[in-house]
Amino acid sequence: MVDKEPKTPAPSPTEEGLADIAAAAAAAAAGRVADDGTAASSTGTAQGGITNVKVLIIGAGMAGLSAANHLLQNGCDDFLIVEARGRVGGRIVSIPLGNNQKVELGANWIHGVLGNPIFEIAVHHGLVSVVNVPKPHKVVATTEDGHQVPFSILQEIYEAYVCFLRRCDEYFLCQYSPPPDINSVGEHINYEIEIYLSSVQDPKEKRLKQLIFNCLLKRETCITGCHNMNEVDLLELGSYTELQGGNIVLPAGYSSILRPLSAQIPKESILTKCPVKKIHWKRKKTFTGLETVDENSENEDSDDSQKTVTEVPTTASSAMRGASVESNTSSNCDIAPEGAVRVDCENGRVFHASHVICTIPLGVLKQTHRSLFDPELPHYKQESIENLMFGTVDKIFLVYERPFLSAAVSEVMLLWDDDKQDAVSEEESTTEAYLSKNWYKKIYSFAKITDTLLLGWVSGREAEYMETLSHEVVADKCTEILRNFLQDPYVPKPKMCVCTSWKSQTYTGGAYTSIPVGATQEDIENLAQPLYANPQATKPAIVFAGEHTHSSFYSTVHGAYLSGRTAAQYLLANDEPDEIIMESDGSDLSAWMQGIALD
Q1: Interatomic CA distance for residues 455 and 488, integer angstroms
Q2: pTM for this structure?
Q3: Which 3 state secondary structure label does DSSP give 358?
Q4: Interatomic CA distance for residues 177 and 195, integer angstroms
Q5: pLDDT tens digit string along 340-385?
Q6: Rounded to an integer, what distance in angstroms lies between the CA atom of residue 356 and that of residue 567?
Q7: Which of 359, 407, 383 has the alpha carbon at shortest distance from 528?
């Protein structure tokens, strides 16, 4: 039985102390769980209400932790991290469910092995075995009336779909153009599906194969981070670089990667529950001190990138080619005039920093960038923030008292009959009346995590609608779905249902970045472009990091990690750089892995 909805909302894990993290599981059973964990809040020292620091890192997600570690490795310890939540990790977070079970609410896999720094860190710290024996994976695909699709047909359609998707990837590098009036990945794949199915004579077989293609497209929206694949730009799909080696699951959960990344950072250097309200990034000296520049009085047009963002000096650029800098001095932190940037926090804290590394997620920037930065960001950067997509992807965890699926089955694909949905207009599909009756049809499968734990995925507007529902409503609907598709009226109700709510989270605003129709890889490069307080500055006032700033690995944790390292490197680069060395956490795993043949 599912527990009844409590009369008072369950406390968000964000607001709890470390000692209360176990209560998150109880909160999950009693109400919706915020996509958050917990951490002890540390406090820095301030004189006169103002804290002076060389480098202020905004955000303690993967990018922020990476930047902090890179600064420490190069002799710079004069930094602070301000984090809005009560914990570190950002979109990497897990909660316990009891019985030694825990679930990852955010990042799930290490995407690729070769050249992936997250995999290297995991191996170096014993978090994953190099010899990975995958579990048998048997997928069962069923229609709404319980008809099970022969595996041979499922495999045939999957292989065709993968081929169609790879062809979409090729446009990014190739010179030829797509067919006329086809601008999105969804349009191109559906064009190929239509051609592929035109040779199928049997109407029932044709319809069945179409349903499988539809299911795979829904799955792709969760991978890409969008509502519909028609939103994703065809020519830019290949800008994302896929690393070889498949998806790796850490036995102790993805959140276990946070331990080695946080271990070297002094606790007093991380200030949690400290949301940023305003970043004054362009200030000038006056008789009364440093004041924010009034762009209009300076006759500066914020659209003029030559005045708001200068070219990175040649010497700094050459230093950027390396991954690390060895300094001849004991500290490499004396890098700019004191207090060039002022950062005001919602709790009243004020920081004066020589430089800021901003890792605020794209979803938050979309909502706050106009009010957050003073002066406003250059127009080209604002346009890129608006151009890029930050989609919603949520998870539904169903916890059971006992197993009920066949031990051999690892995933149940749901082949929804989408005929009625196809006839609905785009405007109607956004209404609450429509979503209330159809949101669950975006769930493309239920995968078995353990014998008593199932995971469903949902994306886009349907995910946003699900975030407004109680856990009991979601649990009841999922039970109804499983009973119908499995044709088993005795499928039990889950004892607990945990749903993520990434779109509703104030400090996230969605899941991850993708490139919609009309946007380009250049928009991501624009977000990564540092800001200089004036054209004469040799080092930037603000450097940006996060998965949304990596033009090849956007949407991934390793993209966030590398962007944080790059941001720190901007600030560490000397005017006349010393010998550049490659950063290593022990052995050169990338070179070593080159000798291993991977399937």
Answers
A1: 19
A2: 0.84
A3: strand
A4: 18
A5: 899 999 999 999 999 999 999 999 999 999 999 999 999 999 999 9
A6: 10
A7: 359
Angle between helices 62-73 and 557-572 (to 10 degrees): 40
Beta strand residue intervals within 402-539, DSSP E: 411-415, 445-450, 453-459, 496-499, 512-514
Can you point out the beta strands (E) in 65-219? 79-82, 94-98, 101-104, 110-111, 139-143
Q: Which two tokens stand for residue 517?
A: 């129709």
If residue 73 lies in a helix (H) or strand (E), which one and from where to where?
helix 62-73
CA distances from 142 to 209, 222, 483, 487, 511 (A): 12, 20, 12, 10, 29
Q: Which amino acid is at 305?
A: S
Quote the tokens at residue 411: 């995933």
Which residues does 276 contact at the CB level (< 8 Å), separation at least 6?
A: 58, 82, 84, 343, 344, 345, 346, 360, 372
pLDDT digits (tens, 9 = 90+) for 297-340: 443 443 333 333 333 333 333 334 333 333 333 445 544 444 58
Residue 374 identity: D
Residues 480-511: b if buried by 16+ CB within 10 A, e if exposed:
ebbbbbbeeeebbbbbbbbbbbbbbbebbbbb
State phi, psi for 588 to the nearest 5 degrees: -85, 85
* φ/ψ of residue 592, rounded to 5: -65, -40
Phi-psi region of 103 (alpha: psi -120 to 50; beta: other; left: phi over 0): beta
Contact 334, 539 (CB under 8 A): no
Per the CB < 8 A criterion, the answer to whether 585 and 565 are in contact is: no
Residue 90, SS3? coil
Q: Is the pLDDT of residue 265 over 90?
A: yes
Range among 39-43, 145-149, 290-294 with highest mean pLDDT value:
145-149
Residue 20, amino acid: D
Q: Residue 404 burial (CB < 10 Å; 0-12/13-18/19+)?
A: middle
119 and 110 Cβ atoms separated by less than 8 Å: yes
Q: Buried (b) or exposed (e) across 538-552, using 16+ Cβ within 10 A?
A: ebbbbbbbbbbbbbe
Are the C-beta atoms of 315 and 576 separated by less than 8 Å?
A: yes
Which residues are paired to 352 by β-bridges?
Answer: 52, 342
| Bridge-based pairing state of the strands 289-292 and 283-286 | antiparallel
Q: Which amino acid is at 346?
A: E
3-state secondary structure at position 587? coil
Tally of CB atoms within 10 A around 350: 17
DSSP for 380-409, written as a single string: HHHHHHHHSEEE-EEEEEEE-SS--S-TT-
What are the structure tokens assigned to 86, written together? Answer: 């009560």
